[in-house]
Specification:
The chain has 10 helices and 20 strands. Helices cover 26% and strands 19% of the residues.
């Protein structure tokens, strides 16, 4: 795996539009990770060390973000560092002293939505036929059963899931063409596709969806951790992730996950690089990591990550769900999408598992999502091959694989 090449692909994609994705920097030791320049994530015990090290009044806290974390008992603060101070060497200088204070200081690692991470070998969406939409679907619960943290939903009124979206906020709508070039952004429709898959396998599941990624699929440790801290659903789906410095757990997510009630469940995509390198947040022990297999022949998807940190695999090849309208290319000969697509990736395997856990939990008053998840994993057979965990098969009455036009 050529991490330097993969990192370069993602860096150039992000750097081309910094106003949309935020500033992005590359590591300088060929580990293959991206981070936000000018930002450090600190625990409260490291603040004095940062001030003493920099001796600069221009190093300042992000009070609004820090207050949001504090409300949920998460020990993370975002500090803004001026451009003339390199955050990599500064973080390295501070981490030992922070550890001595039982605190932490870390870079803000960049994550992306997981259909193709850093130019990996999964697919772009392709057009697919419209699916019949169930009528008069009743909500399983009056409160959210499942939180989807992603690019947002493009059309909250879409007939497949409109009745199931609770507390939809204007800021959580997926802006499909943020740069105004009349072409769908790279991961436009990613969150829409995932919410559609959820309703295909668990109709009526009440959804709480939050936008933590840009339409081109870029987010970071901070944005995802805030999303985790502020959701209320018993099950959270994260079809996103990335790699980190020295493969260490991303600090903000570590703190946010640690602050969650242990009865809640987090499910995350294992990544699409065909490798066993820890992919975060899926690699957290607290998280159910989902790899992908091809339901046509039960073989492991060639793009899927794997490893001892993976818990389960689910279908993730040519899945069929609702999408958005528009073109993904400026070529006039390329047909426009018309609301439906087939797409491959661990991004789409993860919500199948998350939806099954949430569906069972909604049907089992008095039982926690964690109890239901443990029961589900225990009843599954082992997947063939090492590093893919157990195999989850959705109900036979749902044909998830697309029939392309």
């Amino acid at each position: 795996m050529r991490w330097q090449e993969l990192r370069q692909l993602a860096f150039h994609r992000a750097a081309a539009k910094p106003a949309l994705h935020g500033a992005v920097a590359q590591d300088d030791v060929d580990e293959g990770y991206l981070y936000r320049p000018g930002e450090l994530l600190l625990g409260r015990g490291a603040v004095d060390e940062l001030r003493a090290e920099t001796q600069s009044s221009r190093v300042r806290p992000d009070e609004q973000v820090n207050e949001r974390f504090a409300r949920h008992g998460v020990d993370v603060q975002r500090w803004v560092v001026p451009p003339d101070i390199k955050v990599g060497p500064l973080q390295h200088a501070l981490e030992g002293r922070a550890r001595a204070r039982r605190s932490h200081v870390e870079l803000n690692h960049v994550f992306t939505g997981e259909w193709v991470y850093l130019g990996g070998p999964a697919t772009e969406p392709v057009q697919a036929t419209a699916l019949p939409v169930p009528q008069n679907v009743a909500l399983l619960s009056p409160t959210p059963d499942l939180a989807v943290l992603d690019t947002g939903v493009a059309d909250p009124a879409h007939q497949l899931f409109a009745p199931t979206l609770l507390d939809q906020q204007p800021d959580d709508v997926d802006v499909l063409d943020e740069d105004g070039n009349h072409v769908l952004d790279t991961e436009a429709g990613h969150g829409t596709f995932i919410c559609g898959l959820v309703q295909r396998v668990a109709p009526g599941l009440a959804l709480e969806q939050r936008k933590v990624l840009s339409p081109s699929g870029f987010g970071d440790d901070l944005s995802v951790a805030l999303g985790v801290a502020e959701t209320t659903a018993p099950v959270i789906n994260l079809s996103l992730g990335g790699y980190t410095r020295h493969n260490r757990p991303p600090q903000a997510l570590k703190e946010a996950l640690g602050a969650l009630d242990p009865s809640r469940v987090v499910v995350a995509a294992a990544g699409n690089n065909g490798h066993d390198r820890p992919f975060w947040p899926a690699a957290f022990e607290r998280v159910i990591a989902v790899a992908a297999y091809d339901s046509a022949d039960d073989s492991a998807a060639d793009f899927s990550n794997y490893g001892s940190w993976v818990n389960v695999c689910a279908p993730g090849v040519d899945l069929h769900s609702c999408y958005v309208d528009g073109r993904r290319s400026s070529d006039p000969d390329d047909a426009a999408f018309a609301g439906w697509a087939a797409w491959s990736g661990t991004s789409f395997a993860a919500p199948l598992v998350a939806a099954e856990i949430a569906r069972r939990a909604a049907a089992s008053p008095g039982r926690t999502a964690r109890e239901v998840a443990d029961e589900l994993l225990a009843e599954l057979d082992a997947a063939p091959g090492d590093g893919y965990g157990r195999r989850y098969r959705p109900g036979t009455d749902v044909r998830l694989r697309a029939q392309q036009p």
